[in-house]
Amino acid sequence: MSQRVYIFDTTLRDGEQSPGVSLAVSEKVQIARQLARLGVDVIEAGFPISSTGDFNAVRAVAREVKGVAVTGLSRANFKDIDRVWEAVQYAEQPLIHTFIATSDIHMQHKLRLSREQVLEAAVAAVKHAKSYTSSVEFSAEDASRSDLDFLCRVLAAVIEAGATVVNIPDTVGYTTPAEWGRFIETICGKVPGIEKAIVSVHCHNDLGLAVANSLAAVASGARQVEGAINGIGERAGNAALEEVVMALHTRKDHYNYYTGVRTQEIYRTSKMVSTLTGMKVQANKAVVGNNAFAHEAGIHQDGVLKERTTYEIMNPDMVGISSSKLVLGKHSGRHAFRNRLEELGYILSEEEVNKIFTRFKDLADKKKNISELDLEAIVEEEMRRVPHTYSLEYLHISSGTTIVPTATVGLRQNGQVMEEAACGNGPVDAVCKAVDKITKLTCTMTEWGIDAITEGKDALGDVTLKITLDGQKVYMGRGISTDVMEASAKAYINAVNKLVWELRQAEKNEKNESENNGS
Question: What is this structure's pTM?
Answer without folding.
Answer: 0.76
